[in-house]
């Protein structure tokens, strides 16, 4: 597919297409959560490597987390680091579609990007299932042109819409709640201090 405007990209993702747009880290492949299986297919990604849900703001994401006495602690970490390059892996509620994490429905990764374009898209689509834009095992692609070439069936945001967007080329830090503390699953752009 050709590169498209933000309006066309939002319409496309709402219609069930996989799309790509910049974030504050590496560009994302994204789809409606119930269409997340398409991302696994495009990326040739193993189903035991879950996707994350990205939202425009934290309040868009909390319904995907199990109610718990620890929820306030998770929210405090989110208030410190979101929007930003931190993915929190938390106990999943029944609202998480199986397509996002096909082999383990017990957890869900959540993130709010510090990127105006991404937040604008997510505010209009609701939370999306996302991952880095690349074939599984390959380095993340950095530009919309590279993504369009690698994934011709993905709607990518036109370069004119992202020209002023700057992003880090390091993925987000991934921190999983163990029940007592945070375990760093991937050290990325943010150093979590708890």
Quick overview:
With about 190 residues, this protein is of the alpha/beta class.
Topology record:
Blueprint: E1 3-4, H1 6-14, E2 19-21, E3 28-31, H2 37-43, E4 52-54, H3 71-81, E5 86-91, E6 107-111, H4 116-125, E7 128-132, H5 144-150, E8 155-157, H6 159-162, E9 173-177, E10 182-186
Parallel strand pairs: 1-8, 2-8, 4-6, 5-9
Antiparallel strand pairs: 2-3, 3-7, 4-7, 5-6, 9-10
For this entry, give a set of tags.
DHBP synthase; L-threonylcarbamoyladenylate synthase; ten-stranded mixed beta sheet; alpha/beta; nucleotidyltransferase; cytoplasm; 194 residues
The helix content, as a percent range, equals: 10-25%
Count the beta strands. 10
Number of helices: 6
- What number of structural domains do the residues give? 1
Query: In one word, what is the shape?
Result: globular
Stretches where pLDDT is under 50 for at least 5 consecutive residues are none
Walk me through the structure.
GO terms for molecular function: ATP binding; double-stranded RNA binding; L-threonylcarbamoyladenylate synthase; tRNA binding. Keywords: ATP-binding, Cytoplasm, Nucleotide-binding, Nucleotidyltransferase, Transferase, tRNA processing. It comes from Gloeocapsopsis dulcis AAB1 = 1H9. It is built from six helices and ten strands; from the N terminus they run E-H-E-E-H-E-H-E-E-H-E-H-E-H-E-E. A ten-stranded mixed sheet has the order 1-8-2-3-7-4-6-5-9-10, with helices on both faces. It has helices at 6-14, 37-43, 71-81, 116-125, 144-150, 159-162, and strands spanning 3-4, 19-21, 28-31, 52-54, 86-91, 107-111, 128-132, 155-157, 173-177, 182-186.
């Amino acid at each position: 597919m050709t590169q498209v405007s933000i309006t066309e990209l939002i319409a496309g993702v709402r219609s069930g297409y996989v799309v790509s747009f910049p974030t504050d880290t590496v560009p994302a492949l994204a789809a409606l959560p119930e269409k997340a299986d398409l991302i696994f297919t495009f990326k040739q990604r193993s189903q035991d490597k879950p996707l994350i849900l990205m939202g425009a703001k934290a309040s868009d994401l909390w319904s995907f987390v199990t109610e718990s006495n620890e929820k306030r602690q998770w929210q405090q970490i989110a208030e410190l680091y979101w929007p930003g390059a931190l993915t929190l892996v938390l106990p999943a509620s029944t609202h998480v579609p199986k397509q996002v994490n096909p082999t383990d429905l017990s957890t869900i990764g959540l993130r709010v990007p510090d990127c105006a374009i991404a937040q604008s898209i997510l505010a209009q689509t609701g939370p999306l299932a996302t991952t880095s834009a690349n074939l599984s095992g390959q380095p993340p692609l950095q530009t919309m042109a590279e993504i369009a070439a690698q994934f011709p069936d993905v709607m990518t945001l036109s370069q004119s819409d992202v020209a002023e967007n700057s992003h880090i080329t390091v993925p987000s830090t991934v921190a999983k709640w163990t029940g007592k503390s945070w375990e760093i699953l991937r050290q990325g752009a943010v150093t979590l201090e708890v």
